Each structure stands twice: as structure tokens, then as C-alpha cells.
Fold this sequence. Notes:
Blueprint: E1 3-4, H1 11-47, H2 55-75, H3 80-101, H4 111-134, H5 136-139, H6 145-174, H7 176-195, E2 201-202, H8 214-234, H9 236-266, H10 272-291, H11 301-325, H12 329-361, H13 364-379, H14 382-395, H15 400-418
Parallel strand pairs: 1-2
Amino acid sequence: MKKTNTIFITDKESNIQIIKDITSNLISSLTGNMFSFSLGLMLLNITHSPLSFGLEMIIMPLVNLLFVIPIGNIVDTVPHKKIIILSLLIRLLALFTLYVTIGFFKNDYLFIPIAIFVTINTICSSFNSTTYSAAVHEVVNQNHIQKLSSFTQAASSLSAIIAPPLGMTLYTLLGFKWMIFLEIVASLISFAIVTSMYFHYSSKKIQEDITHKGKSRLASQIKKFASGLEYIHKQRLITEIITIGVFINFLFTSLTIGMPYIISNDLHFGNGPISFLESGNSLGMLLGSLLIGTIPDKLSLKTKLFGSLIPTIVSFICLGIVLTCLKNYLTITILGTILMVILGFSLIILNVTTQVFLQQSVPTALLGRVMSSIMTINTSVMPFGTVMFTLIFVHIQQGAWVLILNGIIMLVYSLWRMTKI
């Protein structure tokens, strides 16, 4: 690809790139969410373990921790399009392998091929998401960054609304192997779209010298990555955001693994309400993604963070109250879905606001290392939360009380930390 000293991308080209990105994201997200949801249901129905919906939350942070240095360094040195294409190809190979081998495993042994696939998929996803975040300046111009982030998230949210009920229906009718096949086909289509996108590289985007071997190469990699950590350490606002994120992510794992388990095992309502609540969360994310552009730019970052984090936590608490005090199938489904809409709406505004702030303020040369570091730090506590809350939900009968208590703790902590920003 041709490299120039200054990246110039027209508004027309930016809009074309956004359309391609949205289309690719919509296809891959729809089938990906259907696949993940059916995978969780399959494991929950067969193994009856709360870990069924929490397996990725254990594997993802561990993978991020192990690969945080190479991901950050590779993203900041290797052409971004090459990284994305290679990660998509490896994921396709992993899907095909899972399709061929999953029939050889029964009952609890299903966790073996699923865990291997989730590990490979998480590595590819980490490379992919970090690369996309770092490549935003190569895909669209400065004026289209928030538009790209919000529309891409809207596409993901729209697909996530449809995915739970559609995934549950197709999984019930066709079985899990057909869900894998559908994901393979969709990934091939998404791959074709990505290859047609153009990434504009500046002259500063050069590949790192790979002739260094042994300790000198390792020392060079660590030193290069340390510069990203040093930048984060000097930015007090970023460190405060990370501090809040780590604490919230730890307690938020109780909702991700607890909500399906409470509905299926404690209330014995089956899979239906789970799909509706998941769709409600996605609907809220879609609305938040579409409306975030209407938030006045004059509002401070602190105001935006406070105005989105508090509603997220309050809806979290209210969902726990609904699951504790109500026992009617229809009432829980309706109220639970409404609360998940509110939670998803405020959560996506929080996430997009933070992401756009980082993309616009962090130097492009450091963006890969900074984003990789923040993602790793924020998710590092999730395995501990997943294991702890899995054990808690298994050994207590009123699991919804855990959500209420965690929500109150998050609310008090967030109000305190917000005063530090």
C-alpha cells in the first residue's frame, strides 16, 4: 500500500468505509451472538453449571494478560489490515476444527473443545478489537471517529437484539453443529468485506526489526510496551477510569453468569426469559449508540461518565429486586427486559464515551499499547469474579440477593471515586 507523510481521507471515503465496517460488523455480530448464546444454552442444558455463561469471562482476561505485550507491540508496528485478516483466518480454522471434533465429547467433557475454541477465539478477538481501535485514523478522518464508533456499536447492538431469540430458535430446531456451520459461512462473508477496505498508512507506520533474537529481542519488546504503561501512569484521568473499571467489572460478572442461572435454575422459567432479557440489553445498547451523537459536546467527560454509570448501577440493583420479590413468569420477563434496556442504554454510552476519549487524546503511535493495556487491566479481575460468583450461586438458593448487594456496593464506590476525577 502507498504510504504518505500525512494521512488524508475525504468525507466520502470515510462514509464508504463506515458502511463497509457496519455491514461486516452486523453480519459477524449477528451470527457470533447467536453462536455464543446457543453455546451457553447448550452447556447450561447439558452440564447445569453456572460456568456455562461465564467460561469466556475466565479465559478472556487470562489470554489478555498473557498476550498483552505482543498484542500491543504488534498492533503498533505491523500494518493493521494484515493483523485483522490473519486473525479472521485463524478463527475460521478454529471454527472448522470445532465443527469436526465436537461430536466426540459428551457431558462435562464438552468443556474441553469449547474451552480450546474460546481460547483461540479470544486471542483472535483481542488482536482484532485492539487493531480496529488503533486503526481508526487510517479508516476515517478525524470528524468521523465518533460516527464510526457509534454506528459500529449500533450494528453490534442491533444484531444482539435479534440474536438471543433467533439463536435459541435455531439451536432448538437444528442443533449446535448447525450453529457452528452458520458462523463459518458468516465469517467468510465478513472476511470478504474486510479485505475490500482500504487502510491509509503514514510513513511513521513501519514494521519493527524482527532480526533481534534471544534476550535482546525480549528486552526490546518489554521496553517498547513499558512506554505505553508509562504514558498511562502519567495520565491521572485515565488511571481513575481504569480504577473504577476494574472494580465495576469484578462485581458485574455476577450479573453475566447469575442472571441466566437464576432464571433457569432458581426460578425454573427455562430459556425464554433469558433471551428476552438479553435482547432488552442489546436494544438499550442500540438506542444508546444511535443517540450518543445528540449529547452536547460542551458536557465534560466527568458529567458524561457520571450520567451513564449511575443509571447502569441503579438498573442493576432493580433487576436484582425484581428477581427476588416477583415470581410471575410474565411480570419478570417484562420488567426484567425494561431494566436491561435501561442498563444497556447507559452502559453503551459509558463505553463509547470512554473509547472516543481515548482515541482522540492518546497519540496514535501509542494507541495499540494503551488500548491493549487498559483492556487487560480492566478484565484482569473477571476470572476471580467468575469463579467466586459461580461458587456462590451454586451454594445459595436466593441468588438474586447477590445482585442487589453488589449493586449497592458499586453505587457507593462509584460515587466516592467520581469525586476523585
